[in-house]
Amino acid sequence: MQDQFEPLPLIRIVLVATSHPGNIGAVARAMKNMGLHDLVLVNPNQFPSYEASARASGAADILDQARVVSTLAEALADCHQVIGASARLRKVAWPQLSSREVGEFAVRAADVGRVALVFGREDSGLTNEELDQCDKLGHIASNPTYSSLNLAAAVQVFAYECRMACGAVVPQSEGYRYQPATHADMEGFYVHLEQALLQVNYLDPNKHERFMRRMRRLFNRAQPDSKEIAILRGMLTAVIKASNPQ
Amino acid sequence: MQDQFEPLPLIRIVLVATSHPGNIGAVARAMKNMGLHDLVLVNPNQFPSYEASARASGAADILDQARVVSTLAEALADCHQVIGASARLRKVAWPQLSSREVGEFAVRAADVGRVALVFGREDSGLTNEELDQCDKLGHIASNPTYSSLNLAAAVQVFAYECRMACGAVVPQSEGYRYQPATHADMEGFYVHLEQALLQVNYLDPNKHERFMRRMRRLFNRAQPDSKEIAILRGMLTAVIKASNPQ
Prior knowledge:
The structure is a homodimer.
Chain A: E1 11-16, H1 21-34, E2 38-42, H2 50-56, H3 60-65, E3 67-69, H4 72-76, E4 81-85, E5 96-98, H5 99-109, E6 115-119, H6 128-131, E7 136-139, H7 151-165, H8 183-199, H9 208-222, H10 226-243
Parallel strand pairs in A: 1-2, 1-6, 2-3, 4-6, 4-7, 5-7
């Protein structure tokens, strides 16, 4: 269905000094779900680990390829754009983007070269010295009284926005397997309905105009497909036949 | 900064037969981050639990208020719109929305009454019988070869899209604390720059036009603010003064 799925090899996720190994695994899974593969860990508390592998579920390949480095500068050396995730909106001189804008920006920038999305410590985020190495900050709109997302949840949102920015599309579908009914289908149905309702003496011939308008409102709202109209008309045919047995 | 933050009391998260209690905690945290509070658990494997509370972090209140029921119908009884999360795009007669459309739809529908977002089992999602109780399906665009998000990650994405659909806005900011430089500021700067460069004999008076055009391209791209221009001009003043010490 998603023929246009494109991996995003030039968008890197960088985790700085992650405390909980389970979060690294959950990040790997979120990345793979969204088509990201490049994970760099700066001074993780523990890696590799059983917990990370367990939480990664089917995304062990992301962990296997992950690179561990000892400084943020090393993680960013080959990147031409660096976006730091920040739970707080900062009153600083960094350009600040919403998570949606980050997705759009990162995908555009990845046409030119490598882009890093940097995520700080679970408890305290990125230090000012680390932010100095970022070109922009990205911010997820959240509850101001409880704004700090779990690390993997934050990666999920940014990775999701990168995916959406690729033009990820769910096929427009109201779920119909058949062509929508045409205007002529609908008109044929209303004639048939009126006929059936008169036939069964439901409809007062003097009031049928107003009544039929109500029926039109109802059935038009339902936007039936051609198959459904065929079924409804089959029912009406049966009604007429049953009430008028030669 | 987010003055317009509005909680979303009429959007309910329903988890069906969740296996891992840690996921319930992570869901609670994701919900609270995004301003959702109404959690209903249908036949959870284990609840309450230490693991759920640990993963909920500061969102214990969501778990405390969570309701446990034994049938999906009970969880949905007071809802007027029900959206089922589905990892697969289904060839069925359910209207199918992208996660982005789900956010927009749910927030609009919550103006009228209660809306439920329903999430199935970690391993197998929702059964067809459960899908029958949904009005629409919601789908997160993902890697077709690894499409199933962690439960809490999926709730995070849908809850995030509800939040974004409320018009959550990160203040447009290029990070400047000062007014952007005006055109006149910029022109004043270029005159000053040219004067300084001539003064220090850097600029060949015969070639300065072309050179200054390059300078304009450079500095215009940087979109300096008024303070930065003041600083740059201070530097130029210093240069001129230093090279012409009366």
